[in-house]
């Protein structure tokens, strides 16, 4: 079996992980806006974005990976400066949209 | 090749397992944490040949795991490839300082990934062959009572348990893995033992290894004020990578404090006489930012400079013949055993 064939099989299983990331990210964006512990929510967004950025492009989801990397970077800035929350949340929302696109591609 | 891949992300483990298993010669085991990996190592019936370690994991991170694996004698020279989405220099520095051999960033470029794995396989295979031929040679020498085998002078040597000392291949990989800007911020300095041929002639395999360890200790001691990585490149050359902003200060420090550090350690021949050491410290070699000098070229320039300095200095006088070997011609007598050129 070629590497590409091996990756195709994983792409289908990756959908389950993306569903989970999507659901969690939606809740975390809400928590970062209105929850009792926005810092913890942003840390979790960063964690999820980090995971997605490490895997998505390997499996062929280039733009999902790039948006995830940007989201992780914005979350880092946000946590360091303790500011710039809204731009980070805008990217996190964009990331959710990219997950939907990827799930549509997987079918 | 038996590979242990460690990552807390099950999808990454799945990718690694699938991709690596496309070659039937590879057996891949996986662990989801550093702790699980360590217990697998403790209970393994058969040794692993190669490790792939994620850096950012909950609990013990990949850098610490790398250090723990490297500390196990059976894995002192096994390829350890770090896998991470982070390409910041501090992580790269920490990984290589902990003993990593190479570094691959996520997401994986499959062509590059496969090439790195093949390099690791070649290393494992070459070492296996070398170990087998060493064993055969040692058994022959045991029969005829001759001394332990001495590695060729030109061969890069791995010196263990010295701060900042990494394998020569890892040293080159480290520089290659730095981004262009980070690479631009680096400098390489070569230190040459100018009379290495004479020292090599006069030493047994054992005492030559001790000498290289002593040299490494003295260098590490002289460099302790700065972050650095170094390797023993063969032919009496030690390569040191430092931040370019401190490179000239490092060069100066080596010129001034290395002789003292060596005198304190006082390397010796097998018969207990001190080894006279003649050192040339090269000038820092820098990469270009836009007209990118390659890493190999940067290293070569550093080596050439140190070699040139070693050649154009008065030869060191020695009072005692080295084990009957032919010695370098003497031009002057020096009271101290260690001399330095720049």
Automatic annotation (TrEMBL), chain A:
Coiled coil regions, renumbered to chain: none
Domain annotation HPt: ranges: 3-106
Superkingdom classification of source: Bacteria
Molecular-function annotations in GO: protein kinase activity
Keyword Magnesium: no
Pfam family, one: Hpt
Record flagged with keyword Phosphoprotein: yes
PROSITE patterns in the cross-refs: HPT
Record protein name field: Hpt domain-containing protein
Keyword line: Phosphoprotein, Two-component regulatory system
Positions where Phosphohistidine occurs in the chain: 50
Matches recorded under InterPro entries: HPT_dom_sf, Sig_transdc_His_kin_Hpt_dom
A Gene Ontology biological process term: phosphorelay signal transduction system
TrEMBL record, chain B:
Gene Ontology terms describing biological process: regulation of DNA-templated transcription
Source organism, top-level taxon: Bacteria
GO molecular function: phosphorelay response regulator activity; transcription cis-regulatory region binding
The keyword Transcription regulation belongs to this UniProt entry's keyword annotation: no
Region (Disordered): 322-342
Keywords, alphabetical: DNA-binding, Phosphoprotein, Two-component regulatory system
Residues passing through the membrane, by range: none
InterPro entries: CheY-like_superfamily, Sig_transdc_resp-reg_receiver, WalR-like
GO CC list: cytosol; protein-DNA complex
Residues modified to 4-aspartylphosphate: 54
SMART domains tied to this protein: REC
Response regulatory domain ranges (all copies): 2-121
Entry protein name: Response regulator receiver domain-containing protein
């Amino acid at each position: 079996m070629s590497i590409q064939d091996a990756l195709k099989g994983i792409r289908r299983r990756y959908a389950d992980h993306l569903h989970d990331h999507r659901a969690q990210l939606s809740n975390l964006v809400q928590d970062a806006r209105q929850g009792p512990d926005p810092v913890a929510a942003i840390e979790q967004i960063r964690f999820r974005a980090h995971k997605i950025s490490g895997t998505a492009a390997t499996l062929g989801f280039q733009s999902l990976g790039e948006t995830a990397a940007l989201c992780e970077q914005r979350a880092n800035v946000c946590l360091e400066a303790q500011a710039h929350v809204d731009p980070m949340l805008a990217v996190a929302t964009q990331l959710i949209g990219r997950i939907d696109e990827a799930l549509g591609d997987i079918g | 090749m038996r590979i242990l891949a460690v990552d807390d992300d099950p999808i990454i483990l799945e990718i690694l397992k699938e991709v690596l298993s496309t070659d039937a010669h590879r057996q891949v085991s996986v662990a989801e944490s550093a702790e699980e990996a360590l217990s697998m190592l403790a209970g393994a019936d058969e040794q692993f040949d190669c490790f792939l370690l994620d850096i950012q994991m909950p609990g013990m991170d990949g850098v610490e795991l790398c250090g723990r694996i490297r500390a196990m004698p059976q894995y002192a020279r096994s390829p350890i490839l770090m896998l991470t989405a982070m390409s910041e220099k501090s992580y790269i520095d920490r990984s290589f300082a902990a003993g990593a051999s190479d570094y691959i960033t996520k997401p994986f470029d499959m062509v590059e990934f496969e090439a790195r794995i093949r390099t690791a396989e070649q290393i494992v295979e070459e070492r296996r062959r070398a170990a087998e031929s060493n064993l055969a040679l040692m058994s022959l020498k045991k029969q005829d009572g001759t001394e332990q085998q001495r590695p060729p002078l030109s061969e890069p040597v791995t010196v263990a348990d010295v701060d900042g000392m990494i394998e020569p291949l890892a040293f080159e990989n480290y520089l290659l893995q730095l981004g262009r800007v980070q690479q631009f911020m680096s400098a390489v300095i070569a230190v040459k033992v100018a009379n290495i041929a004479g020292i090599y002639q006069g030493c047994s395999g054992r005492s030559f290894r001790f000498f290289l360890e002593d040299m490494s200790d003295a260098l590490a001691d002289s460099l302790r004020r700065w972050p650095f990585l170094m390797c023993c490149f063969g032919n009496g050359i030690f390569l040191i990578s430092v931040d370019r902003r401190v490179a000239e200060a490092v060069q100066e420090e080596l010129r001034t404090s290395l002789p003292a550090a060596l005198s304190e350690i006082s390397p010796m021949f097998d018969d207990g006489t001190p080894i006279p050491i003649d050192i040339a410290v090269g000038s820092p070699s820098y990469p270009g930012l836009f007209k990118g000098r390659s890493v190999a070229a940067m290293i070569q320039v550093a080596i050439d400079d140190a070699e040139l300095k070693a050649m154009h200095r008065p030869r060191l006088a020695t009072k005692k013949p080295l084990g009957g070997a032919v010695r370098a011609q003497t031009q002057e007598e020096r009271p101290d055993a260690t001399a330095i050129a720049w």
